[in-house]
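Hey team,

Filing this mostly as a record. A colleague (T.K.) asked me to run one chain through the structure pipeline before their review meeting, and I want the input and output archived in the tracker in case anyone asks later how it was produced. No errors, nothing strange. Just documentation.

Input sequence:
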Amino acid sequence: MFRKSLILLWRHLIYRRRHFIGTTVEISLPCLLISLIILVHTQSGGDLTPKQIPAKSFSGEPLYKTVCRSNVGDGKVLYYPQSNLTQRIMQKLELSFNNLLYMCSIRSFSAISVTPVNSSDMIETITNGNEITEDTDKPV
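Output structure:
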């Protein structure tokens, strides 16, 4: 087994010797391109040190309390495209959100419903229809 490996390595070395230009280009071209990218980035004033992105603060309170404080309910969630997958996802969303709203039932029980639409433009049309009436209490 060791002898076979040596023979393969020798064969590869001979191939690389015969194709010296191709081997040189294969090694030097990626190094050259990466050096060029770094050069352009530093010349444009870019900083190469990694930047820390602060984590968003999370209050740690349960989601249902956040939903209870919000003015959500008796609304409609529009989604597109309509497929079996999106329909299942949206039905799970509807069930989960309605369960959250049920946990908040301080006043009357409110709910949301999910509705598929035929195009993404239709979502914008329906949403803009609410803005035209300027009825902020009317959920979309």
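Quick notes for T.K.: Residues 20-43 form the longest helix (24 residues). The longest strand covers residues 75-79.
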